[in-house]
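Fold Annotation — chain and its backbone
Encoding — discrete vocabulary of local shapes
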Amino acid sequence: MLEVVFDLVAEIMAVFEADAFHAGIREVFHIAVDNFTQCKGRDPAALFAGEVIKINAHLAEKNTKLWMWGDRLIEGNDSGKGT
């Protein structure tokens, strides 16, 4: 799945001659819920961090900076977004 996303990002980066990519990554509310068998029972924070690390590593290979919103990095109860 990420390969498709990475191909799209590469096209966008080339068209705009960008050296950074804003991935957003803030609309992550239903991660590791019980009805997703691939993620069931896993730590939502670890899943989220793992995906961010993969995206950042890919962009770093292309000398591209990852930008993202920071509110999902705040503990859920502090941000009002849940755990």
Q: What stands out?
A: Helices lie at 2-16, 44-61, 76-79.
